[in-house]
Amino acid sequence: MLELTKKKYKVEEIIKATNDENEVIYEFSMQLTPEEYREINKIITSEEMLKIQKDKKLNEEEIDEKIIELAYKNQDRFEKLCYKEHLEPFKKAVGEQYFEDMNEQLFDFFWEAFIGKKAKRANTMTSDLRKISGN
After folding, report:
1. In the beta sheet, which residues pair with residue 18?
2. Pair 81, 39: CB distance under 8 Å
3. Cα separation of 1 and 128, whole Å?
């Protein structure tokens, strides 16, 4: 039997920053609805960037300009989706460098969720085909 459970939040993860004495500086629960999760998927997989790169009407400089603009827009949207009302307080509590470090961790978390699953499926399909074909 295949079963699907619809939940209010697709992702619920605790985001916590601590100091070297292991004291909590800031902590909150990142909660993403299925729609927000889907939007992050589009940001991570860069669908819009691929469209820009394939646009034959644009020259190389225009493509670079549009990609940089989109990257900043996506980064801003990614932060707003993940942190919501905690964005500024978290950034203030941890400082700019640690905020960027947390963003990298979040990006890696979602990268694994989206790309890692697809790669795992592809690898499984390849190994299953090898078993079937006897190679």
Report:
1. 24
2. yes
3. 22
